[in-house]
Amino acid sequence: MKGSRTFKALISMVAVAVLAFALVGCGGSGDSGNDSPSSGSALSGTVSMNGSTSMEKVIGSLAEALMQENPGVTVSYDATGSGTGIECAGNGSADIGLASRSLKDGETGLTSVKVALDGIAVIVNPESGVEDLTLEQVSDIFSGKITNFSQVGGNDIEISCIGRESGSGTRDGFESITGTKDACKLDQELTSTGAVITAVSSSKNAIGYASLSSVEGKKGVTALTVNGVACSESTVKDGSYAIQRPFILVLKEGAQLSPQAQAFVDFATSPETADLIREAGAVPLF
Hints:
Layout: H1 4-21, E1 45-51, H2 56-69, E2 73-79, H3 82-91, E3 96-99, E4 110-124, E5 132-133, H4 135-142, E6 160-164, H5 169-178, E7 188-190, H6 193-202, E8 206-211, H7 212-215, E9 222-223, E10 225-226, H8 233-237, E11 244-252, H9 259-268, H10 274-279, E12 283-284
Parallel strand pairs: 1-2, 1-3, 5-10, 6-7, 6-8
Antiparallel strand pairs: 3-11, 4-8, 4-9, 4-11, 4-12
Helix pairs in contact: 1-2
């Protein structure tokens, strides 16, 4: 892969596809007349996906690889958040939904396919003076019981908690694991992982959370160890890092995927994608 240049190229291709097929809102598939592989013709058509912003690098890498192997296929991806992605998979306005959390009991009529794992890193501005927190301390900070970094071994700085908006898979995963659901006291609720990282890097008071795949290599923030364990591929895979979640494809139960959409699902869940997923910053299943 060519890093950011390749991904920018992918985004450009997606933009063209969006204009060409007039995908609006959640973005449904714009081509129903696709050649089936069984006919002997090359695979072609569009695959529309919608959902988790945290999965952007992983899905971009997988989509690019699939399109390189199948020039007649165009994959579009609308990064709107897990809640919207699940909704779009359910109502059929996207071929595949993307969620960075497990489906909830009330989200019926859907099936999920796990493609990778992700750690949720707890991040602070380096000026906080904090390097490690227990899971209980993380919970107490985000629920407002701990209000100054000096209470957890850091500098005498009032804490400002930053998180994601309601419906975000990252937020849902973080709150479920830390036991702070409906208890988080956030000073800012932001609509993307990148916005959280930027906000934390800009304020010495800030603490937030973000996907491992988004935090690695970022300047201006410190990813804390939790219970003495760093957030990394190996600790997420072996389960020793406490704050982690799945990356899943969401499909409408009973609905038949187009040949090109099925090809993406098959490719994304195959062992041959392990290096692509790893290079995108997530943890492969194989």
